[in-house]
Write a structure and sequence with these properties.
elongated; four-stranded antiparallel β-sheet; Glutaredoxin; alpha+beta; Nuclear Transport Factor 2, Chain: A; 234 residues; 41% helix; four-stranded mixed β-sheet
Length: 234
């Protein structure tokens, strides 16, 4: 091999080596960029943006409190109104678990224990027919509850009556009827209107019956001092 050919071959190897080094440098820097782009804060904010855009009613927003890594996911602690929740998002930002996930190593709550805990005591039981008559009376009195099913205060009030299904005729779900709730200027959940005026009294059977001139159902007297709470979600 002549000296000239050797020189050309050496120059070729140098050029190839430069391209290899440059390629490695680009790949390393690209990896650093990807790591920055997929940080826990970025994934948490992506989840928050999705929740605000697709899962909450207009005027209600979720904000990030904290984010930590847990069980191969990002656990994001969020605040909606006055309530705080834990949600989870996959590290690639493709999967959102808005209400947590099941840990396979933990034993599930048995159906028996749930039934026992949820079964009402006899002293707090209102005869179904009397509760139905009471709700009919509330409807005639233009008593309407405007709530949001994600709000804990709404659930407390509806549970006092026996659940969402029981009060369907006097309840408006604002996540489904946003325009109506905006028209009624509802900004806090739950909001109670009687003949279009905001009800400011205690959320007890006794106070509600007095405000609407409806007869309190028997069995509710023992519950008359039990309020569903005076709080609300914004």
């Amino acid at each position: 091999m002549t000296d000239k050919i050797k020189q050309l071959f050496t120059l070729f190897l140098v050029i190839v080596g430069c391209f290899v080094i440059m390629g490695v440098f680009i790949l390393l820097n690209q990896e650093k960029i990807e790591k920055v782009e997929t940080s826990s804060e970025d994934m948490a904010q992506k989840a928050i943006d999705y929740i605000n855009k697709n899962m909450l009613s207009e005027g209600t927003t979720a904000s990030l409190v904290s984010v930590v890594e847990e069980s191969g996911l990002y656990k994001i602690h969020i605040k909606i109104g006055e309530e705080e929740y834990d949600s989870y998002v996959s590290k690639d930002g493709k999967l959102l678990f808005p209400q947590g996930f099941i840990k396979l190593e933990e034993a599930p709550i048995t159906e028996t224990s749930e039934t026992e805990e949820s079964e009402p005591t006899s002293e707090n039981t209102i005869p179904p027919e009397e509760l139905t008559e009471f709700i009919y009376c509330l409807k005639d009195a233009n008593f309407v509850i405007y709530g949001a099913n994600w709000c804990g205060w709404t659930k407390k009030l509806t549970d006092m009556f026996g659940g969402f299904d029981v009060i369907e005729s006097i309840y408006v779900e604002c996540t489904e009827k946003e325009e109506l709730c905006e028209e009624k200027q509802v900004s806090v959940y739950p909001t109670i209107l009687i003949n279009g005026e905001k009800y400011q009294g205690e959320r007890t059977f006794k106070e509600i019956a007095a405000a609407t001139n409806c007869e309190i159902p028997s069995g509710a007297e023992s519950m008359s001092e039990e309020s569903s709470g005076g709080g609300g979600c914004q």
